[in-house]
Amino acid sequence: MSEPIVRIEGLAKRYGPVVAVDEVDLEIERGELFALLGGSGCGKTTLLRMLAGFETPDAGRVLIDGQDMTGVPPHLRPVNMMFQSYALFPHMTVADNVGYGLRREGVARAETDRRVVEALEQVRLADLARRRPSQLSGGQRQRVALARALVKRPKLLLLDEPLAALDRKLREGTRFELVRLQEELGLTFVMVTHDQDEAMSMASRMAVMDAGRIVQVGSPHEVYERPASRFVADFIGIANILPAAEGRWLALRPEKIVLSTARPDTAHAVAGQIIDIAYEGGRSLHRVALDDGSVMMVATANIARTPDGSFRRGETIWLGWAADAGHPLDT
Hints:
By secondary structure, the chain is of the alpha+beta class. 25% of the residues lie in helices and 33% in strands. The chain has 8 helices and 18 strands. It is globular. The protein folds into 2 domains: 226 residues, P-loop containing nucleotide triphosphate hydrolases (Rossmann fold), CATH 3.40.50; 78 residues, CATH 2.40.50.140.
C-alpha cells in the first residue's frame, strides 16, 4: 500500500482553556476527496488551518508526502487553500486573478499564461478570461477561485466550506463539478464542511469530529449505515435510537421501517399514532407516537402511494422492521 499523502500524528491546539483540536491522528490517501465534517466549534477548521500552516500546533506533527511540515510556513508547503469568501481581486480580470500567485513567485510570463489557460479550461471558464469578478455568477466566481488554487499545482488542495456562498440550487450542481474535476485531476482534496449532505454526496471518505476529536472515519456509506456512537447516528441523517440488550442501543434509520394499517409480518412490530407528516418531494417523513410515550421517525417513498392513499395525521398505524435493520452502537 502506498504512503498516505497526509499523516497527522497527535495533533493538538489550544486557545487558552479551550481545546480546539485534541490529539488527533489521521491518514489521508492520495487521490481522495476527504471531508472533515462536524458542527460549529468541533475543531474541523482549526485542523485544516494547521494542515495549511496558518496555525501552529501545540503538540503533534503533520507530514505531507512523507515530509514533516513542522515549522514550514504556508507558502513553502505543497498545499493550496480555497477560502469560503473566494477573495478575488475585483479590479483584476479572471485570468489575472488566476495567475496572481504565479506572478508573485516570479514564474516567467509565457509559462504563467500557459498555466492560466490550462487551469481555466479545467474549470470550463476559458471563454470568460477577460471578465472581472463582478461580471460573473456566484458559481463562476467559485470556479475562478478553484482555478487560482489549481494553477500552482499543489499536491494537496484544501477547501474551507467551498459551497457555502452559493444558493441551494447552484450548490447541488457545483458538487458534481467539484467531484468531476477532482477525479479528472487525480488530486487530493481535503474539504471542511458542516453540511452532512455535502459531505455524503461528495467525499470518498469522511471524518466526523466532535469536541476537537475525530469520532469516526469511513466512507459515507459506512458512517451512515454503521455509526460508531449515538452522536454520529444523531449527527448524520436521522436515526431512531432504541434500547437493546445489556444496556446498549440500536440506531434504526427511518427508511428501514415499514408503515402499514395492518400488523406487518416482520421481526419487530409496534403500534402508534401519526402526529406529524413532512412532505419532502420523493418521500414523506412521519413522526409516530408510541404507546410508551416515545416518538419514532419513519420515511415512506411517495412514488409508491397516491395522494388519496397516503397516511394521515392522527391515524393509528403499525410500524415494522427486520431483525437486522438496527445497527448496534458502541456508546
